Each structure stands twice: as structure tokens, then as C-alpha cells.
Amino acid sequence: MIGRGRALRPDDCEMALLPAHFKAPAKPAALPYDAPMATLPLQPLVIALTLAAGGVAMALALWASARRQPEPLRAAQLLWARGLAALPLGWVLLELSLATATPSLSVPAKMLFMAAFMEFLRAMRAVDGEHVARFWLWVPVGAVGLLSLGFLASHPSDPMRTGLLSLLCAIAAASTAQSAWRHLRAGGSTQAGVLCLAFVLVAAVLAGRAGLLFLPESAALRTWAETPLAQGLLLGICVLGPAVATLSFVLVGADRLLDRLERIASRDSLTGAASRRAFFELAGARFELARNRRKSLAVIVIDVDRFKSVNDEFGHAGGDLALQGIANALREGLREQDLLGRLGGEEFAALLPDADLALASQVAERLRRAVASLELSSDGRRMSLRICAGVASLAPGDDSLHALLVRADRGLYDAKRAGRDRVGVVV
Questions:
Q1: Which H or E run includes 342?
Q2: Phi first, then psi: what are they for 133, rounded to 5°?
Q3: Which residue, 40, 55, 59, 80, shows the most beta carbons closer than 10 Å to its own?
Q4: Which fold has domain 276-425?
């Protein structure tokens, strides 16, 4: 019979046609795979293994790339690659310790976490050319290992072990963020800002997790922080943060390498003065600026007297020593805003912004006396070094830097014809 007051369902008709002695089969029991994914004990371990595989693959790719890079970029990328591999592997060991009820596995897991964040910090410092001794890696890692063993022996279920680790890792992550911010403030790549934000987030998550685990046991937030879901969420953020920041780290290193190559190309390797190409580029820009703003500008062209005889007497090593000493003397005799370049061989040039002909002549004379007073020796023999200088200043008819240099060259040759060790001024 179909009860009153209830809507007719399709299966009511089917049941009405069945014999009276028919019994409906019992509903089959739910299969294991019908259980919600959140109740499966291996789910956090599977996630950790997946992230570990991705982290190791990324670390191997970075390691392969680092082998082709010059120092210090090579060292920085190798350090970062080690951190990328260690962090998810530590998570895997931590999940294995929970899944297999083997608390001893948590000790190497926590050491891997600490080592990973220290390697990230060392890598960021290495990009800026700073060397962080390996001692500063082993001290915190060893401390975490000893503290974990001590707490494991005395308080096997005390979450302070994990809370203390989170706090130490937060300090390392915050230091990495500070290093990235310092790199950005120093005019480095804007990708350092992405790095800084990523590690600020990681440091905040780790510090927050440590704070929750130090709350009283009755606190609801601490209870939530100890659940597998919360641990997986917080640890996942800490693992994914550096992984996401890896591209920014690689770009920061690439920009640093590009800056280094540009510096190498713009500097004469022997004397440290601007290279010929860099001098003409920078001097040309300053010439146009001075001409457009109708400001004074002067140039001094310098040539070492009888430099061939220096090479003949002291050899090329002695000649290199002489050029280095002369370049240093010239650099010390110029103002901070002046530009010194080596045009080739024993010829130098100096560009003096905001300097008229009289001031430039005084500077040239000071440079001549500075070189003449140099006390350099090679193989126990003293070198006698002298220079000639030609001076010219910007005139209304000068339409290019070349015109200014031509007049300064004329003053240089006038000084050489007059007996060398002199300054020639062209009005």
C-alpha cells in the first residue's frame, strides 16, 4: 500500500508489481575508494611526494644550468638548487614519520627544513658577491637536530619541537627577504622584489605556525594548527613559496651577470679607467648635455712621454706597472665628477664637466706634477715617468665631441714639440 499524504514515486509502482515474498537486496557497503579524500591517511604523503618530485626536478634543472655559469652566479644557483631539493624532501620525511608512526624520522626531516632555508639565504647573499661560510649552515642545522633529539627523548608528543623549528626557519626566511630587499634598494633587478614578497609570506606563515603551536593546549587555534589539514596547508605554502620564487631568483642572477659583463666591457682591465668605447659613449652624452644647457666643459688628452723606452728597458711587465701607476695618479688628481678613460696604448683622456679652460689647465698641470713625482721601480730599478697633456674647452662652434678632442690633440702635440713633460693649451 502506498501511504497517504506522500507523493507517488516511480519505484512505488515497481515495488507494487513484485511478489509479496520479495525482499529488496541490502545496499552494498561503501568501498574504500568511496571514502572522502580528506579521510585517506596517505593523502598528505602523496601531496608531499608530488611536490618533492617537482622540487627535485627543478633543482636538477637549476644544477645543470649552474654548471655553465661563471662565479659567483654558479655558486648561488647551486646553493638554491640544494634548498629546492631539501625542502620538499624534508616534508616527505615528516609525513612518513606520521604515517608510519616513526617519530625518529622527524629529526632528519626538520634538519632538512632548516638546511633548505639556510641555503636560500646563502644563495641570495652569493648573488651579491657575499660569501657566507658553511659554518653558518651547520650551526643552525646541528642545533635543530640536537634540540629535536632532546625533545623527542623527553617529550615525544610535544609540538614545541615543530614550533621551534618553524620559528628558526622563519628567521632564515626573513633574512633572505631582507637580503632581496637590500639588493633591490641597491639598484638591482626588480625581480628581487618578487623574491622579497615570497619570503616575507613564507616567514609570516612559519612565524604564525610557531605562534599557534605555543598557545595553550585548550586554545581552538592550536587545535586547528595540529590537524593534518592545517599542517599540510602551512607546510605546502612554505614549500611552494621558494619554488615559485625560483624564476625570480634566476632572473636576478641573470641581471647581475649582465651588469658584471657591462662593467667588464666598460672598464680597461689593466688600469681600471673607462674603456675607449665607454669613454666616448659617456663623454658624448655629457658633451651634448653641456652644449644644450650652455655649460662649461673641458677635455684633457694625455700621452706618456717615451713610453716605448720604458717597455724596452723594463719589459712589458714594467710597462704595465707604469700604466697602472700613471692611471692611479691621474684618477687621484681628478675630481669625483670627472671621467678618465684609456683611449689606447699609453694615451688617456679626461673629461671635466663644469670646468672652463683656466680650471682645466690647472688640473692638467696638477696631473703632470703627480706623474712626475711617482716613485715606481721594477727589478730594483726606478722608473722615470713623464707625460704631456693637451687642454681644450667647449667653444660655441663645437658641434661634436670629436671637434673638442681634435683641438686638445693639437695642444698635446704642441707640448711634445716644445720639449715634452709639458701642458699645451688651445684657446
A1: strand 339-344
A2: -60, 150
A3: 80
A4: Alpha-Beta Plaits (3.30.70)
Regarding pTM above 0.85, the answer is no
Alpha carbon 29 to its chain centroid, in Å, reads 58
Q: Is it true that domain 41-266 has CATH number 1.20.1070?
A: yes
Which tens digit of pLDDT belongs to each residue from 230-261? Answer: 777 888 888 889 998 999 999 998 888 877 77
Report yes or no: 264 and 105 within 8 Å, Cβ to Cβ.
Answer: no
Evaluate the CA torsion angle 366, 368, 373, 378 in order and state its sign: positive
129-to-179, 260, 338 alpha-carbon distances in Å: 12, 11, 28
pLDDT in tens, 304-336: 999 999 988 889 899 999 999 999 999 999 999
Average confidence (pLDDT) over 149-162: 69
CATH 3.30.70.270, the chain: domain bounds: 276-425
Residues in the chain, total: 427
Residue 1 has pLDDT above 60, yes or no: no
Q: Which amino acid is at 60?
A: L
Radius of gyration of the chain (CA): 37
- Tens digits of residue pLDDT in 351-387: 999 999 999 999 999 999 999 999 888 888 889 999 9
Q: Within the chain, which residue ranges are assigned CATH 1.20.1070?
A: 41-266
HEC per residue, 81-113: HHHHHHHHHHHHHHHHHHHCCCHHHHHHHHHHH
Cell of 239: 614549500
CB-CB contact of 86 with 115 (8 Å) = yes
Residue 13, pLDDT score: 42
Q: How far is CA 276 from CA 90, 122, 268, 326, 416, in A?
A: 54, 37, 8, 17, 23
The number of beta carbons lying within 10 Å of the beta carbon of residue 249 is 28
In 334-385, alpha helices (H): 357-372
User: Averaging pLDDT over each range in 32-46, 57-71, 221-235, 383-397, which range is the top one?
Assistant: 383-397
CA atoms of 266 and 268, how far apart (whole Å) = 7
